[in-house]
Design a protein that fits this description.
Blueprint: H1 3-21, H2 25-38, H3 43-55, H4 59-72, H5 77-89, H6 93-106, H7 111-123, H8 127-140, H9 145-157, H10 161-174, H11 179-191, H12 195-208, H13 213-225, H14 229-242, H15 247-259, H16 263-270, E1 303-307, H17 312-318, H18 322-327, E2 331-336, H19 338-344, E3 350-355, E4 365-368, H20 372-375, H21 394-403, E5 411-415, H22 432-437, E6 444-447, H23 454-462, E7 466-468, H24 476-484, E8 488-492, H25 495-502, E9 507-511, E10 525-526, E11 529-536, H26 544-557
Parallel strand pairs: 1-2, 1-4, 2-3, 5-6, 5-8, 6-7, 8-9, 9-11
Antiparallel strand pairs: 10-11
């Protein structure tokens, strides 16, 4: 580097940083590149070029540039922290945590590094570790509103709800306009059954931020949970008025319409789930060059890819439409996750069952399974409610019969835990210790759960009459065969309930007071499953009353 260039570099860097801070990225990048032409090992120019690459969405280039900078100066904590953020964006979470750890090792008072480390650990579902990171960030910066908010989210996941509410309250006190803190607070109150408090919280939020569509969505969610359908719909409409492209408002409105049985209006609104950026409802939107099929075009002689988009239960419920597509002359390719592949071989309609992740053959159209009710214009009275559309393998059923005890007692299959990671999923679960108290004698009880919570495992094996074959349940074809050996299946709202219903097994589903939309309102039957009976928790949110009803019903159904 010439002497003249050496004198210019600090000025170029100063101007570049100023432009960078103003958001004038191309101009700042040009100056950084000018510096690097004169001095390829210039730490700041490499580091800041990496930040611009990150801001422009080129994470791979950002990693390369920041790592080159760190070779020159491995003791710069901010560079390690920024590298961790890019690695986190790439989904390389353990590497991100290691980068944040290096930043903290250099600067033990680096609150942002602890905060970002908490986010990465949260994504890894290492809740206790994430909590400790947020606590360290708050210890360094007590006014760190975002850390208080994230701390509340983690405490919610740990079922420490009083602490979660306190953290959301603290975040709001520090930053009254923090949408995420208000959103989490309202959602938690609804999940806890404190719906009136959730409504009050939403109203307070609207008072502070009347133009925030998320506040009106939160109000709509509380009102619909209180079955104030008209007022709830008006709140969703207000959110849409404020932000016409707000996917969450349309999506939440769709759930309210569907729960009321208004399928005509509900299914079109449900398509907004793809743009519901604030929720986990669509795990992995797909993008294909082929057109989306929603029933308007002829599929005669065409191949169409149908695929699951959400949980196992959603696939089990809506795969029934594959046969209807095939009846229109389409060649159906059904793609599902591996645990469902073998069971789906029994489904009428697909010409081929594909495992998610494998290369796809050529096809003409595609449609996610949960869009098929819209494609077929499904209404309550036109649900394709086949009594049985999936079947277990005969040889597997025979094998289970040899493993099960020879008995003349009626066999009852049990599922008491949903294992759901969805918000409010814990409300579906029944504590095993409570369930056992209501199981009448004279029956053989069999766990149908592949995954048993650690808190239930010891009780299940030591103090209950429930047989457990979890180690022999490798995929849904194994569970389906075990279901076939049951006289009755009793399940909370989980994929196993849909499996039993699809098999045509006598199935009782135990629902929380505020159930998922697909179970509609107040009725004891399901239009989706002819062999299913619904038992609904009372407004108090406790299980004792509904479990007592089930005890009586078992004795009535199977007098022993």
């Amino acid at each position: 580097m010439t002497a003249a260039a050496a004198r210019e570099v600090p000025q170029w860097l100063s101007r570049g940083v100023a432009l960078h801070q103003q958001g004038r990225l191309p101009e700042a990048q040009a100056l950084y590149r000018q510096i690097l032409r004169e001095d390829p090992g210039h730490f700041d120019a490499l580091h800041l070029s990496g930040l611009i690459a990150h801001q422009n969405g080129d994470a791979a280039a950002a990693v390369e540039l920041i790592r080159r900078a760190l070779v020159i100066n491995p003791h710069e904590a901010s560079a390690h922290c920024n590298l961790g953020s890019v690695l986190q964006q790439l989904g390389r979470l353990p590497e991100a945590v290691a980068s944040f750890d290096r930043a903290i090792g250099i600067r033990p008072d680096f609150a942002e590094a602890y905060f970002n480390r908490g986010i990465a650990l949260q994504a890894l579902r290492r809740w206790e570790d994430a909590l400790r990171s947020y606590d360290r960030a708050i210890g360094i910066r007590p006014d760190f509103a975002a850390a208080h908010c994230n701390r509340g989210f983690v405490l919610d996941k740990l079922h420490r709800w009083d602490g979660a509410l306190s953290s959301f309250d603290r975040a709001i006190a520090l930053d009254p306009g923090m949408t995420r803190a208000w959103l989490n607070r309202c959602a938690l109150l609804r999940d806890l059954g404190a719906t009136e408090r959730a409504l009050e919280s939403a109203d307070r939020w609207i008072g502070i931020a009347p133009s925030d569509p998320c506040a009106h969505i939160a109000r709509g969610n509380a009102l619909t949970q209180l079955r104030e359908w008209s007022l709830g719909g008006a709140s969703y409409d207000r959110a849409i008025e404020l932000s016409p492209g707000c996917g969450e408002a349309h999506f939440c409105k769709s759930l309210a319409l569907l729960q009321q049985g208004d399928f005509e209006k509900g299914w079109p609104e449900h398509e907004w789930r793809w743009k519901n950026l604030n929720g986990p409802n669509v795990k992995d939107p797909r993008h294909f060059k082929q057109p989306l099929w929603l029933g308007e075009l002829s599929v005669e002689g065409k191949s169409i890819l149908l695929y699951g988009e959400q949980g196992f239960g959603d696939v089990l419920q809506f795969c029934r439409y594959a046969s209807l597509v095939a009846e229109r002359g389409g060649r159906v390719l059904l793609e599902v996750r591996e645990p469902l592949c073998r069971l789906m071989q029994s489904l009428a309609g697909p010409a081929c069952v594909l495992r998610r992740g494998d290369p796809l053959p050529d096809f003409d159209y595609h449609c996610p399974l949960m869009s098929l009710p819209l494609a077929f214009g499904t209404r309550i009275d036109t649900v394709p409610a086949q009594r049985r559309y999936l079947a277990a393998e005969a040889n597997k059923v025979e094998q289970w019969q040899t493993w099960l005890d020879k008995t003349t007692r009626p066999r009852v299959g049990l599922v008491w835990s949903s294992g759901s990671a969805m918000p409010g999923g814990h409300r579906r679960d029944i504590p095993l210790a409570e369930l056992v108290r209501y199981l009448p004698e004279g029956y053989e009880y069999v766990s149908l759960q592949k995954e048993v919570r650690a808190s239930d495992r010891e009780l299940l094996h030591a103090q209950t009459p429930i047989l457990d074959f979890a180690e022999r349940l490798h995929d849904f074809s194994d569970t389906a065969a075990l279901c076939e050996c049951m006289d009755l299946v009793i399940s909370v709202d989980t994929g196993l309930a849909h499996l039993a219903g699809a098999l045509g097994a006598p199935t009782w589903v135990v629902l929380p007071h505020h159930p998922d939309w697909r179970w509609l309102l107040d009725r004891e039957d399901s239009p989706w499953y002819p062999t299913m009976r619904l038992f609904r928790q009372g407004p108090t949110g406790v299980w004792g009353g509904v479990l007592q009803q089930i005890t009586v019903a078992i004795k009535t159904l199977h007098a022993v």
